[in-house]
Write a structure and sequence with these properties.
The structure holds two protein chains of two kinds.
Chain A (H helix, E strand, L loop, with lengths): L14 E5 L5 E6 L8 H10 L9 E4 L2 E8 L2 E7 L5 H19 L4 H6 L1 H11 E2 L2 E2 L4 H4 L53 E15 L5 E15 L5 E6 L3 E3 L11 E3 L1 E4 L8 H4 L1 E4 L4 E11 L8 E9 L5 E9 L6 E10 L6 E6 L5 E5 L4 E10 L3 E9 L7 H4 L3 E8 L8 E7 L6 E16 L2
Chain B lengths: L5 H13 L1 H5 L1 H16 L8 H7 L5 H14 L4 H14 L5 H13 L6 H12 L4 H17 L7 H10 L5 H14 L10 H10 L5 H10 L8 H15 L4 H14 L4 H19 L4 H17 L19 H14 L5 H12 L4 H15 L3 H12 L4 H17 L4 H8 L9 H14 L6 H10 L7 H17 L1 H17 L4 H15 L2 H8 L9 H4 L7 H4 L6 H4 L8 H4 L11 H9 L15 E4 L6 H10 L15 E8 L8 H10 L3 E5 L7 E11 L2 E11 L5 H4 L8 H4 L2 E9 L3 H17 L6
Antiparallel strand pairs in B: 1-4, 2-6, 3-4, 4-5, 5-6
Helix pairs in contact in B: 1-3, 3-5, 4-5, 4-6, 5-7, 6-7, 7-8, 7-9, 8-9, 9-11, 10-11, 11-13, 13-15, 14-15, 15-16, 16-17, 17-18, 18-20, 19-20, 19-21, 20-21, 20-22, 21-22, 22-24, 24-26, 25-26, 25-27, 26-27, 26-28, 27-28
């Protein structure tokens, strides 16, 4: 019998530190006294000296391993001397960043700098002797005493921020965008002003071939609950009744919403899920992902964008690119912050453009060798066109091969591509005083590639 | 605020802290302490403020207390004497009615890391183990571990260890997990805590109450448990089944690790577990966190080593996102290469071609070399893409393509014609030394077929004075020598110039010595030169071509869920050492080649069995499936009855012991057969019973050519009963793994047929064992 005794070294974290992108030391905490604080500098040297193809996530310095993630433009680093589980360390660092975001309101160099005392306190409770104790905000709220410092005085009634994600909208109830970026614990002082946000966020990655065939279409979605309630014993989230999981389900009814795989947060009780698609949970303060789901290889509706390019060389050696971009969303919805990136051949010098409306813009980014065409708002059922004349004195022999694939980045507010909707959101017991419940939908493009 | 140097900062802070007005105002006092901590975390040395901070410790303000403790724990080891002053405050706090204050004091008492304080700490720690509040017990349990590590030489207190074992039954889950951790640390010398049956079952029963981190800890500790019976093992496994598909990657990974450790002797269970984690792993690959994605990808690569077909249907999940960083794209491409099969090859190559023009040169090069790897099985499609890329005439792309072509030709000699014609003219675009070395290597090995080879070389030799890379110069010497051997008239003059330059003017010793060596070799005469330089043109083993055989899980199980897979560089799956050709120049007749052949572990079909005149197999003229069917059925009748035709054709039946064949994927079988010029015409699906393959080839020996038709039949276990009586040779156990080979040859040529059979046998034995 082959016995391979697994290493019994625990997942101990030796140190945790947070660095700004310039390498400034923001937070440093040593849990086990196994290495000096000079390794912070060593880490920064190593991480900045990496070439593009070297994976940065794990690095070594003698016996010490650095594991880091990047969040909010900061380096979140854990060091360990044992060969710990990378899944655990990375999940921990991500969770730590999420906690800091919950407690400080936002995640950036400034907020970390201003709230360093709070973060030390947090680290003290979260990790002891290198062992993760708890990362549940329910437990932590009893221990954390320091008040968060906000970079600007927070006002819920700041109406200059109309619309979520910058969208103008006819809906009367629109959550102020700043609402989700406030510290969790300030709810104590807000005089019973309690709110809960349920966000359905989907990321789609699509590849459309040059013949217009959808070659790949994946959607990753999640339901996130952000809770600013002082007391909330139970919450019930009702999903579409026709929601089905797995490939085997019989389909063909228009209203059905289907996903391939679906997983839930540990705290979610599913006793009413199979009968009536209701998730029950007791939300902890702060943000948590309640449900994650994936849909691969098919979209319930047509992909939101189609591109019809015509590219040719004119007699003057210029490259003419005539692009027609069609948005296939329903007419009442719209995509916002659309950015179309068109890689151009090497040797391109400048571009002149004809766009169909003045709010659009386009420029040639020499650094990334691509034209960026920005469309602030793109209503469904419409079509935009653009003509780019590319000045390139030293074109290669096959410039057309170097054009593309075109990449689109966009947001689809108030929309989920899978069609997942939240039927209702009930809190029990009924909250005393004013409380607000927000449900928000948004779909992001993770990677939307159209080959030309 | 004016800039203050570190000493000024400390002086300023001290003035603030010792100001009685500040001390009497809690808010100002706290903000002064905040300033100290801020300076500390920015790297300013504030150790000089220790005594002021000790004073600040005695306060009722918990926030201030916490801040001071952060400071004290960082600097206590530098001031052991002053730290004694804190211990009284801390011990007093340990009696505080507020459990939060108690746990805080207890934690920081040990965190001062002062061995001299041990005697003061033990009593509060013992009391802490029995505290009413769980948060104090959590701290106390770990406190014992800290204390033990502070004085590693001291004896282990058996009473404490017993108490810790007892606390495994604590109602608070974190206390229980901390007990595990503490016991593991304290009993490190003895190999960790005892994991017996009651403890194991207790831990498993409480798994549901733990959070993600606690579950991982318990699963990890349980790896040391050995179940006493198979039924116990299966009870444990079924209990853990839910964790295997946990949406939390850490739990999923820890559970799979445990599965692999618990059942090393039950490959079926392990394989089933790998199938189960496919979903969660794929989900982690699409996680919003790039680092999680990367980790999942690296671990998928491990799984694929044993189950190459695991992700085949999900290849699209490994298409690169536009905005993904280069290191993730490269891993994804490595995975994609492993997933290629007949159904997805077109889509996959199309996708990879898109990456070849990526702005990031690393990504583009990785994509090109990925296409080259796929080219080992699907050479035509890949070469078409690669030659197309040369048309772009971009420096980094051309360089990567030429290097890829070199590696491809080395393992797939049948590609050499296409490559040779594609090479013309690309020396103008090549700038970097890697690319030029690859071009020179190709010219050396296939120079006689590249029309412009001497002109290309001339260009290189004219520029040799300005050449910086010694690698290119050495390659240039070898190439010119080898080209001189096959095209002497065109190269003699330039070879002379090159040797003269390298011997007389070159400063790099290696280059000079190599030039001298070649010069002396030339003086030994042309025959000798040819003999020495005439090396092989391709990798003789099939191993590179048909991919690695599936490894047993135990090969990588111990590195699963460790940092190891993330650290391995991008070249890990590439096995560059074997794939990249070097100038292997040795005599095929000598013993050296035999040693190398056997050492490589691969299969060589040229020497040994087939003696001169050599047997060559050829695919032309091609045989259509209809034609094959006609010929095959026409000769169906047993040969004994057709005496007239006996001279005309021969039929042979043989059994080959080869367990892998019925399990191997059609494409690897086809690739292997094609390499030795055997065409496979039709397959039954893998695992179908009976499993059949039809194949044909033309065997040529000493100017005689014969068509050989063949059938491989694997009947599975069912048919053993019927045929057991017919042949008495092998035992029934061995028979299960045998493939029945039926060969028909026309015209008859026994020798060639035997030669063919030995080649076929050898090919079948190189096939990877693949459970899909």
């Amino acid at each position: 019998m082959t016995k391979h005794f697994a290493s019994t070294i625990a997942a101990m974290i030796s140190q945790v530190f947070i660095l700004s992108s310039q390498g400034d030391h923001l937070i440093y905490k040593d849990f086990r006294g196994e290495a000096g604080s000079d390794v912070v500098g060593v880490f920064y040297e190593k991480v900045t000296a990496l070439t593009g193809d070297q994976p940065p996530v794990v690095m070594n310095h003698g016996d010490l391993h650095f594991v880091h993630v990047r969040q909010g433009g900061l380096y979140w680093v854990a060091t360990t001397t044992a060969d710990s589980s990378p899944f655990t360390l990375i999940e921990f660092l991500n969770r730590l960043a999420a906690l800091v975001k919950d407690y400080c309101g936002s995640l950036c160099e400034k907020s970390v700098q201003m709230n360093f005392a709070l973060i030390y306190e947090l680290l003290d409770e979260v990790v002891d002797y290198g062992y993760i104790q708890t990362t549940s905000s329910d437990v932590l709220k009893n221990f954390i005493q320091t008040e968060a410092v906000c970079s600007k005085p927070f006002s819920l009634f700041d109406l200059s921020n109309v619309g979520l994600f910058g969208a103008e909208t006819q809906q009367s109830k629109v959550a102020p965008s700043s609402a989700a970026t406030r510290p969790v614990q300030s709810s104590r002082e807000q005089g019973g002003k309690s709110e809960i946000f349920v966000d359905v966020i989907e990321r789609m990655s699509v590849v459309i071939g040059s013949n217009g065939v959808v070659m790949k279409a994946d959607v990753e979605g999640e339901i996130r609950v952000k809770c600013f309630m002082p007391s909330c014993s139970e919450m019930r989230i009702g999903l579409n009744e026709e929601f089905s999981i797995g490939k085997s389900q019989i389909r063909g009814y228009g209203a059905a919403v289907r996903v391939d795989e679906c997983s839930f947060h540990q705290a979610v009780r599913l006793d009413e899920f199979s009968s009536s698609r209701i998730l029950r949970l007791c939300p902890s303060p702060g943000e948590q992902t309640v449900m994650q789901y994936q849909l691969s290889d098919e979209l319930p509706s047509a992909p939101p964008f189609r591109l019809y390019p015509t590219i040719e060389r004119d007699s003057g050696g210029r490259l003419l690119m005539y692009l027609k971009l069609r948005c296939d969303l329903l007419p009442r919805s719209a995509a916002i912050n659309v950015c179309v990136t068109i890689p151009v051949p090497r040797g391109s010098v400048s571009v002149s453009q004809e766009l169909s409306s003045p709010d659009q813009s386009a420029e040639l980014k020499l650094q990334s060798r691509a034209i960026e065409w920005r469309i602030p708002r793109f209503p469904g059922g419409t079509q935009l066109s653009a003509l780019f004349k590319l000045e390139a004195p030293a074109l290669g022999p096959a410039p057309l091969m170097e054009v593309g694939p075109v990449v689109l980045a966009f947001e689809l507010p108030h929309l989920t591509v899978t069609g997942l909707q939240i039927r209702f959101l009930r809190l029990s017991p009924v909250q005393p005083g004013p409380s607000q419940r927000w449900i928000r939908y948004v779909t992001h493009s993770d990677s939307y590639v159209i080959r030309v | 605020m004016p800039y203050l140097g570190s000493e000024d900062t400390v002086r300023e802070l001290r003035r603030h802290l010792s100001n009685p007005n500040v001390q009497s105002d809690p808010l100002r006092y706290r903000s002064s302490i905040l300033k100290v901590i801020r300076a500390m975390s920015q790297g300013v040395d504030v150790a000089g403020l220790f005594s002021e901070m000790v004073k600040a410790c005695a306060t009722v303000d918990i926030v201030q207390k916490k801040l001071v403790y952060v400071f004290l724990c960082s600097y206590a080891t530098l001031n052991p004497e002053l730290s004694l002053l804190v211990i009284n405050t801390l011990r007093k706090d340990c009696q505080d009615p507020n459990p939060m204050v108690r746990s805080l004091a207890l934690r920081n008492m040990v965190n001062l890391r002062l061995p001299s304080l041990a005697e003061y700490v033990e009593q509060p720690l013992s009391a802490g183990l029995r505290d009413r509040a769980a948060c104090v017990r959590r701290v106390a349990v770990l406190g014992w571990a800290k204390l033990h590590n502070l004085q590693p030489a001291s004896e282990i207190d058996a009473a404490v260890v017993n108490e810790l074992y007892g606390l495994l039954r604590d109602p608070d889950p974190v206390v229980m997990v901390n007990c595990l951790r503490a016991l593991e640390e304290i009993l490190k010398e003895e190999g960790g805590m005892a994991i017996n049956k009651p403890i194991t079952h207790h831990l498993l029963n409480r798994l549901g109450q733990l959070d993600v981190w606690g579950q991982c800890e318990v699963l990890r500790v349980l790896q040391r448990y050995r179940p006493q019976s198979e039924s116990e093992l299966f009870d444990i496994l079924s209990l853990l089944d839910a964790s295997l598909v946990s949406p939390h990657p850490p739990v999923m990974a820890a559970t799979l690790s445990l599965f692999l450790v618990l059942c090393p002797d039950l490959p079926a269970v392990s394989f089933a577990a790998l199938e189960r984690v496919r979903g969660p792993l794929l989900a982690a690959c699409g996680s919003a966190s790039r680092e999680t994605r990367f980790t999942a990808l690296c671990h998928i690569q491990l799984l694929l080593r044993s189950l190459p077909g695991l992700m085949g249907a999900h290849y699209k999940r490994f298409f690169c996102g536009y905005a993904e960083p280069a290191y993730i794209k490269q891993r994804k491409m490595q995975v994609l290469v492993e997933l290629v099969n007949d159904d997805n090859v077109a889509m996959l190559l199309d996708e990879l071609r898109g990456y070849c023009t990526d702005v990031n040169a690393d990504t583009a090069q990785a994509a090109i070399s990925a296409i080259g790897r796929i080219g080992r099985s699907y050479s035509d499609q890949c070469l078409q893409i690669l030659t197309g890329l040369l048309g772009l005439q971009q420096e980094h792309i051309t360089s990567a393509v030429v290097q890829t072509m070199r590696d491809l030709v080395w393992v797939c000699p049948q590609c050499s014609d296409t490559v040779c014609s594609a090479l013309e003219g690309c020396e103008e675009t090549l700038q970097d030394s890697q690319g030029r070395q690859a071009l020179l290597w190709l010219l050396a090995v296939h120079g006689e077929r590249v029309r412009s080879a001497p002109y290309t070389l001339e260009g290189f030799i004219d520029g040799v004075r300005g050449e910086a890379s010694p690698g290119v110069k050495m390659e240039l010497l070898t190439t010119t020598m080898r080209l001189f051997v096959c095209r002497p008239a065109e190269t003699q003059d330039m070879l002379g110039r090159l040797l003269h330059h390298c011997i007389e003017e070159e400063t790099d010793m290696c280059v000079r010595d190599q030039a001298l060596l070649y010069y002396r070799l030339l003086r030994c005469g042309m025959e000798e030169t040819r003999r020495v330089l005439g090396g092989r043109r391709s990798e003789p083993s099939l191993g590179v071509l048909i991919g690695r055989p599936a490894e047993p899980i135990s090969q990588w199980a111990s590195s699963f869920n460790t940092l190891e897979p993330l650290k391995q560089g991008a070249g890990e799956t590439e096995t560059t050492g074997r794939a990249s050709p070097q100038h292997v120049t040795f005599d095929l007749d000598s013993d050296l080649s035999d040693t190398l052949n056997s050492g490589a572990g691969g299969f060589s079909f040229s020497p040994a069995g087939v003696q001169a005149p050599p047997l060559t197999l050829s695919l032309s003229p091609a045989l259509s499936p209809e034609e094959f069917e006609r010929l095959w059925t026409q000769r169906r009748a047993p040969p004994a009855e057709e005496g007239a035709e006996e001279l005309d054709y021969v039929c042979l039946e043989e059994r080959i012991r080869c367990p892998a064949v019925p399990h191997c994927s059609p494409q690897s079988l086809q690739a292997a057969m094609q390499l030795v010029n055997i065409q496979t015409l039709a397959f039954t699906a893998a695992h179908a019973s009976p499993w059949r393959v039809y194949l044909y080839t033309h065997a040529q020996q000493a100017a005689r050519s014969a068509l050989i038709l063949g059938q491989l039949l694997y009947a599975g276990e069912d048919e053993d009963e019927d045929e057991a009586g017919l042949s008495e040779g092998p035992s029934p156990r061995g028979r299960e793994e045998e493939v029945k080979v039926t060969l028909k040859q026309r015209p008859r040529d026994e020798k060639a047929l035997q030669g063919f059979l030995s080649i076929l046998t050898a090919v079948l034995h190189t096939l990877p064992f693949n459970t899909h």
